[in-house]
Amino acid sequence: MADKKQLLSQTIEHFDITKNNVVPTVDSMKNMAFTARDLHRAASIYDMMIRDKGCGIILTLAGSLISAGLKKVFVDLIRNRMVDAVVSTGANIVDQDFFEGLGFRHYIAEEKYKSGMYDAELRELMIDRIYDTFIDEEELRFCDETTQKIADALEPRPYSSREYIREMGAYLTKHGKTKDSIVLAAYENDVPIFCPAFSDCSAGFGLVAHQHNRTQAGQPMISLDSAKDFYELTQIKLKNPNTGLFMIGGGVPKNFVQDIVVAAEVLGHDVPMHKYAVQITVADVRDGALSSSTLKEASSWGKVDLAWEQMVYSEATLAVPLIAGYAYHKGGWKDRKAPRFSQMFEQAVQVV
Predict the structure, then answer these.
(1) Does the pLDDT at position 2 exceed 60?
(2) What domains are defined for the chain?
């Protein structure tokens, strides 16, 4: 078997939508059938969201997306005012994006490693496998330690994941090794990031270590408040009732962002359902799971309007560059004004 240095030699490279004009390709799918036609409609709906003045666009991320080479796509969406808020799994934001922001990389695994027959040997080398991708476990441990370091420096109190991730962005402004980071770009462009299940990632290890050390020393500690996450994201819906969703995968991020319509109603506000919604997924609708539930089904819950919704049953690394690249090269974002939702929360803190 090759040694660790040999195995971690060929890096994953991130797709650049700015250099690949896919508009003619996606437009040619309009008169095809099946997933091709669905993808064209999804791309058109995303372009409509961007051109709809006053529409707040929320991006959701689930699945192993950054490690797969999609990081720069999402960075460019944030930088070019094509996304106003992000709801994600912790793994995408911490283990993968913040991890790369610290100067580390993901690596291409040879074909044979997908079989799973060599995983015990990889464990001995402290190499973690994500299907056909490698990540250095020792570097991940450094990422864990960094999240603890950030927690240790904060005032002891409950935080929303948005607040904590904003501190991660501030950390990268001083210690980051690359400018292409979702966490950093969101910090610089006042785009809030929420991770409703935040402890389910490297940050969880750092926060566990922080709380353990503080408990042992009898000192106050920080904590993550998931209800505060939900309340803050609901505030976005209340401030900006016209909303569109661009959802990659399903899971907690999908449910969390759809539920803010109902949460607003619980708070006594009559807000419209999400006006636009696009979801990319490979989940099977027949198992009753949320990841595969259709956007039409969400309408029965009063969450998503039926006029401009589209499911795309495709693996994300194929569909995301086409849909995002289409909207980027159509250029609707050039005249778009970003709402900068993070400023809303910072102003609220200052008033208090």
Answers:
(1) yes
(2) 12-351 (3.40.910.10)
Q: To 10 degrees, what angle do helices 341-351 and 226-239 make?
A: 110
CA distance 135 to 112: 16
Give pLDDT tens digits for 123-166.
999 999 999 999 999 999 999 999 999 999 999 999 999 999 99
Catalytic (active site) residue 303: yes
Strand partners, 247: 60, 279
**98-102, 249-253, 328-332: segment of lowest average pLDDT:** 249-253
The residue whose two tokens read 């695994």 is 109
Neighbours of 148 (CB within 10 A): 20
Tell me how far apart the alpha carbons of residues 135 and 137 are, in angstroms, rounded to a whole number. Answer: 6
User: Residue for token digits 């990031």?
Assistant: 193
Alpha-carbon distance values, 72 to 180, 182, 184, 232, 347 (Å): 6, 8, 12, 27, 30
Question: Concatenated DSSP letters for 68-128?
Answer: IIIHHHHHHHHHTTS-SEEEE-HIIIIIIIIHHHTT---EEPPGGGGGSTTHHHHHHTTEE
| Tokens 């778009």 -> residue | 336
Contact status, residue 68 vs residue 41, Cβ threshold 8 Å: no
* pLDDT tens per residue across span 150-209: 999 999 999 999 999 999 999 999 999 999 999 999 999 999 999 999 988 888 999 999
Dist CA 205 CA 289 (whole Å): 28
Set 19, 303, 330, 337: catalytic member: 303
Q: Are 23 and 250 in contact (CB under 8 A)?
A: no
